[in-house]
Each structure stands twice: as C-alpha cells, then as structure tokens.
Write a structure and sequence with these properties.
This protein is α+β, with helices and mostly antiparallel strands. Helix content is 43%, strand content 23%.
C-alpha cells in the first residue's frame, strides 16, 4: 500500500472518530436536555396538582355554608374549575391514568357534580340538605387528598421520593408512581351522588331496558348468534372470552371481526372489523342504502337516519328509533360502511339496548308556535318536530326540536321542553361534503 493511501485512510479514520465522538456528545446532550425537560414538566404538573387540590378542598369546605344562590353559584364554579385543573395536571404526570383511577374519578365526579349544582343555583334554587351533605363528604375526601399530596410534596422536596422516571427502577427510593399507588389503595369510599349527571348512582345502577328481564343464554347459543350476524358457518366463529360492564357479553372472532353478544337475551351489542378500506368505489347514497338494508335485515325496524359522516373511505351513520313520528334519540344504533365494498365494518347497539322501550308520549302542552317563539331573533326556524332527547344523567326530556338557520346559512338545533316550554339544549350542525355532525 502506498504511503499516500495509508495517510488518507488514517486521516479518514481520524475524521470519522472525531465525527462519531461529536455525534455521541450531541446525542448525549439531547438526551440530557430531553430528560431535564421531562422532569421539569413532571414537576410543574405535580405542583399544579397540589395547588389545585388545595384550592378544591377550600372551595368545597366553603360551599357547605353557602345560603344565597349567587354565592352557591360562585363557589360551585370555583369547585368545577379547580377539579378541571387537577384533572389536567393529573393526566400530565408520567404515570398511567389507570394507576390513578380513584383520584381521577374523584376529580371528574366532583367537577361534574359542582357543574350540576351551578346550573341548579343559577335557576334560583336553594341548595338542598342532601346536596350540602354531599359537598361535606366530597370536602372530607378532598381535604384528605390535599393532605396526602402535601406530605408527598414534602417528601419530594426532601429527596425521599425519586421523581426521575428513567432512573426509578435503579433507585432505592420509592418513585412518585409508587407513592401514588399507596394513596390509591387507601382512597376513601366516595359518596353515592344522586343527580342528573353521568356519575349519578342512578346511572350506575340502571339496568339496560332491553335485556333486564331477558333470559341468560349459553356461550354456545351466543356463538350461533354471532355466526348468524356475520353470515358465517358456526364452525368459523371462535370464543374470545367474556367481558363485564353495563351489558355483560360473550366475545367471539370470525374472519376480520370481533363480535360481542349479550349474556342476557343474546343480542349483538357491537361488532368490529379490523379491515381498513383504501379506496371508495360506491357513493354515499349507496352506502346509506346498504346501512338501512343491514338494519332491517337484523330486525331493527322503525329506525330513522339522524346524521352521517364520511372519513377515510368509511361512512359512519347514526340511526334512532321513531315512535308515532317522534324521534327517540336515546335509542341509537351506529354503523360504519366500507366505501369500497359496502360491507359493515362497525356496528354498535349498546345505546339502543340500554334505552329502547315503548314510551308514553303525552300530547305536548307547548304549541309549535310557542316553541318557535323561543328561537333567538337572529335565527329563522326552518322546520320543527317532536323528539325525546337524553340528559347527561341518562334521563329523558320530551321536546320540540327546531332546526334553525342564521343569515349566513349556519344551522342550529334548538330543543324546547314540550311540556314546560323551557329551552333545554342548543346544538351546532357542522355540514360539509363529508356529511353532518351535531356539536
């Protein structure tokens, strides 16, 4: 080998070594900076959580003694705000939320209950003794949680808890996650809140209407239901376990699908295909026709389309039951149609099985003209119909539904109580070439 070539090789190797060393230093610095930023974010989130918990405890304590609707509303608004801040801070910690279930549930329930009380007090209603007792119980829990967080904050400041997630496994000190796990295990029992909201005890205890009196079915019988729903021979469907929840189910797989069948009554609760269409070969109208045919073929009669949306070559359409011309929005079934073949990719009937029943629908006490008068002067009422809408607490309200339009062509849904004339809900209709969505 020539001397010049040898020198070139040595120079190249030296340059490569320098470059590799520089890259290693750069990557190390980046890793250190990323770890430092993550630690700072975690410390900030923990600090925010502690401050929000302290404020929540104080606001709950004060709210127990409020007597005027104005003060009650102000304190309930503060409780809601503190609970929201605490929830956001909790989700920003580098700890899986499933390990913080009790704490997260407490903040969510307390905030939602305070929001409901805020609405009640805004209507001029005095706080009931039951509500006052609930606030006292929530306040006791908040005070205990605030105290535990204060002790944890002191331990972190004193170096008794390791906050570095990357080094937690190598440290003899307990991690922040370990400390929270201990708090979770000692979390006190929360009061059973009875109100019109998603965390009400009445919601948790409510049995689905369609299956509460139905007979139990065997797994073999449920497998036949799943096979029939998919149009497959029974030997092509395999058991995939059981699940609890509001509607306990048997789960099965067949082809690309997973199907859940209720253990009571043997109803298909949901079905999901893993296939993702890559193109569209049919029109939205054709897909809607396929969905309607699918519903009718599986025994869902008297259903009417509510809204649909087209995204990623999949048309998702919502149907609701109709009784004597009244739209029953709680009785909802969702389907997703593949735009390449027209097959059903998703089916969800949990809401329908939970809510569907023949309802007693009285003659409305509020006329159509009186309901239209509730529309703001900036809205033009385009159409009106009767409807049953759900509340957040799984109750129902009998309403007149007004489809309204602004001068610039935007559409709104206005719901007026058909018996009292109170304005119950306002929704925005988002409409474009992909479909319609109500917010």
């Amino acid at each position: 080998m020539k001397k010049r070539t040898t020198i070139r090789i040595i120079s190249f190797l030296a340059a490569a070594t320098v470059a590799l060393g520089a890259a290693s230093v750069l990557f190390y610095r980046r890793a250190v900076n990323a770890e430092r930023e993550e630690r700072h974010r975690g410390e900030y989130a923990f600090s925010e959580l502690c401050a929000a918990a302290d404020g929540l405890s104080a606001a709950l304590e004060k709210s127990q003694f409020a007597v005027s609707p104005a003060i009650t509303a102000s304190l309930c608004a503060e409780v809601y705000s503190r609970a929201q801040t605490a929830s956001a801070a909790l989700s920003s910690l580098s700890i899986p939320l499933m390990e913080l279930e009790n704490t997260a549930s407490f903040f969510a329930r307390t905030g939602d209950y305070a929001l409901w009380l805020l609405r009640e007090s805004s209507g001029g209603n005095d706080m009931t003794e039951e509500a006052r007792e609930n606030l006292r119980a929530l306040g006791d829990t908040a005070a205990l949680l605030s105290g535990n967080l204060a002790q944890l904050r002191s331990d972190v400041a004193g170096g008794l808890v390791n906050t570095r997630a990357a080094a937690a496994m190598d440290s003899a000190l307990p991690s922040l996650g370990d400390s929270f796990l201990g708090m979770e295990q000692e979390f006190p029992e929360m009061p059973a809140l009875v109100y019109d909201g998603p965390f009400s005890a009445s919601v948790a205890e409510r049995e689905p209407r369609m299956i509460k009196d139905a007979r139990d079915v065997t797994q073999d019988a449920a497998a036949l239901v799943a096979a029939g729903f998919l149009g497959l021979r029974s030997n092509l469907v395999s058991a995939a376990g059981e699940s609890g929840g509001k509607i306990p189910v048997y789960r099965f797989t067949g082809g690309d699908y997973t199907v859940s069948v209720s253990r009571k009554g043997g109803y298909v609760v949901r079905a999901l295909s893993q296939r993702a269409p890559a193109r569209s070969a049919i029109t939205a109208d054709a897909a809607l026709e396929k969905a309607a045919e699918f519903l009718a073929a599986h025994g869902y009669r008297g259903m009417k389309e509510s809204y649909h949306i087209l995204k990623d070559h999949v048309l998702t359409v919502t149907y609701c039951a109709e009784q004597d011309g009244v739209m029953c929005y709680p009785d909802m079934v969702k389907l997703a149609v593949a735009m390449d073949t027209g097959e059903m990719l998703r089916f969800d009937a949990e809401a329908y099985l939970t809510s569907h029943a023949a309802r007693e629908l009285p003659e409305p006490a509020v006329s159509e003209e009186d309901a239209r008068a509730m529309a703001h002067e900036g809205l033009t009422v385009k159409s009106e119909k009767l409807a049953v809408i759900p509340t957040s607490g799984a109750e129902e309200i009998y309403c007149r539904e007004l489809i309204c339009e602004t001068e610039d062509g935007r559409h709104y849904l206005l719901y007026v109580n058909a018996m009292t004339g109170a304005q119950e809900k306002i929704l925005i209709l988002l409409e474009d070439e992909s479909g319609t969505l109500a917010l």
